[in-house]
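We close this part of the discussion by returning to an individual protein. Part of our work consisted of pairing the sequence of a single chain with a tokenised description of its backbone. No coordinates are needed to read the tokens, only the vocabulary itself. The amino acid sequence and the backbone structure tokens for this protein are reproduced below:
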Amino acid sequence: MELFTDIDEQVARLRGLLGGGAEGADDVVSVMRALDDKGLAEVMETAAKLSRSVDRIGVVGAGVVAERSTREAGHDGFAQKRGHRKATDFIQGVTGGSKGDAYQRIRVGTSILGGFLSASGRQSGAGDEESGGAASGEVQPDFGDQMGDDGSPDGSDASRAPTTPPSWHTPLDYALVRGGLSQAQYDAIFRGLGEPPAGPAAGTMSDGMPLDPAVGARIEGEFREAWRLAAEQLVDEAAHRSVEELRTAARTIRDRLDPDGADRRYFERYEARSYRMWVDADGRSHGSFVFDDEGAAFVRSVLDSALRPRLGGPRFVDAAEKEAAQRLVDDPRTFEQLSYDLLFDVIRSGTLADAKAVHGTKQAGVRLVRVVDSSGDTDGAAHTEDRLTRVPAPVADQHACDTGTVPVSATRAGDPLNVGREHRLFTPAQRIALAVRDGGCRWRGCDRPASYCEAHHIDHFAEGGRTDVDRGILLCRFHHMRLHTGGYRITRTGKRDFVLHDPGGETKDLPPRLALEYAFHGIDPPPKRFRPAA
């Protein structure tokens, strides 16, 4: 089988990298410490591949354990017969992981089994004990040779297509069992996209006219097809995107595909907002917030504005600001204590606060980005500049009335237009444009938001480089310093992606943040393949 071939190859490679002498725990420690940097990197990459290959068995096994440990099975359930109340307890005991990891394994495994059940289109009587098939409710996917190159369960042609329509998450199922996705990547995409909305039922049209059930079924089918295509797209991105990026992008795609559902979820979270206090047995007072989206964005902005120097934010040019930042870095209080004291400074001072004294250089606030095309059309919704939280149209309109707007003209590819070379440093307006385009640090794998970034000139100003938005890029402080001190450089041809050149001569594209590709997508609507037909 392909699965065990992969495992054998990775084990053999590890044995070769470690010299075959790392048999005991002490041997592994000594051999690993003796590796050079290149060898250590190869060992870590190979171990990760091996872990992913083995995990494919454990994840599907978790799904089967859950199937055999249902409440209906009672004491005869798989986990119950082994002394556990439920499947998660058994999985946690076997793996030694957290309860959250056990839930994730079962969630992913159950989803995969459901997808294989749908894709296999079980014939009448299959799974029936009398017909010699698997017991009812069991699914037995093959991990290897029975999957065709086209992603179908057995490489069959159209004449042998399954009678049951494939699940929308079938691309995720096959990617995981073939090693293209990790358990965490699968879960991030699956939960980020969520289930497609159901089609309208008969008699539910807004104009009061009866709806043909076939029309409702067609609409539901188009939603599921759009979700399937979105899953395919994110599987393709998974090789060079982090789990956090995939999760954020999946949620962004879901909100673009189902704006009504996105607004509903936003207001549900708003209605769930709460704060409570209690005193424990030792007399200590505790507090617990459940934030709505806008409230969470504002609190993050307050903390970021004042504590950014402690978290590796932009460097300060002004001597006084630099000194104040250093005092904050040297402050003996923990980050949690600083956050507590800051929030109470804000609460005490209220609207009479000296903004610079409380918040630092940049006063706290939430900046929203709304895409409007050249004709003035927009879907109304917006997203926060930092962390890309979606905000429904009425809330965005309220912000515009309260704080005004800053128009940023952009090309059809989403690149803000040039502003010129009049300034040595990027102006505030240009910084806004960079934040809209980049969404944060563009270095691969970095999750620092725009407010933590510095604007880098890819063409040195002293050598005639222009302070233009299309020749600038946002980098967090760490990666900006890394670029200048580590022999890296960034180039760009026209409006194409920025390219990072490392000291060894290798190059890597620096594509936009994945979620921004869907939240912004130039000034065009999302591709038709991601939108169900009207």
Remarks:
- The chain has a mean pLDDT of 76.
- The radius of gyration is 27 Å.
- DSSP finds 19 helices and ten strands in the chain.
- The first helix runs from residue 2 to 17.
